[in-house]
């Protein structure tokens, strides 16, 4: 089986596990996420608008809006890093491909703390996304620029895998937060 096939199979398995989770578990995960963001260096936080059965981080964002500048990711081109547009709770959004929502505002920010969605994660801090490589390219670029960057994956514990298949372009997370609390990569 090729690496691409292993990733596709792992992604399918993880998405099915995530879909079976009780969404009420998002509450404890959001509380742990708020604590993790407040402990991380930086003021500009990017997050994501949940799609499919992704964990809903909007309650955490409502809380963090009082102390941090928030932004949401925007895909501008295939094989390009994400850009991040300022967003505050209540701001207007527009629907994009795949059911994602992006701010109508055009002001771009550079995040220092990235709340990252994922299909699966492992104890090493690697994540499995949807296969587009957007977060990997973005994290690599931000880290190469030398500014503060903390990547926090947020997921349900059911999305944990023994080992996520990785390739050289996959960027690890600095922290994963689930309903059981924070988990630092081993």
From TrEMBL:
GO process terms (BP): folic acid-containing compound biosynthetic process; tetrahydrofolate interconversion
Record GO terms (molecular function): 5-formyltetrahydrofolate cyclo-ligase activity; ATP binding; metal ion binding
Top-rank lineage group of the source organism: Bacteria
Name of the protein described by the UniProt record: 5-formyltetrahydrofolate cyclo-ligase
Binding site for ATP: 7-11, 127-135
Organism whose genome encodes this protein: Silicimonas algicola
Binding site for substrate: 54
Catalytic reaction annotation: (6S)-5-formyl-5,6,7,8-tetrahydrofolate + ATP = (6R)-5,10-methenyltetrahydrofolate + ADP + phosphate
UniProt xrefs under InterPro entries: FTHF_cligase (IPR002698), FTHF_cligase-like_sf (IPR024185), NagB/RpiA_transferase-like (IPR037171)
Requisite cofactors: Mg(2+)
Keyword hit for Nucleotide-binding: yes
Membership in a protein family: Belongs to the 5-formyltetrahydrofolate cyclo-ligase family.
Magnesium in keyword set: yes
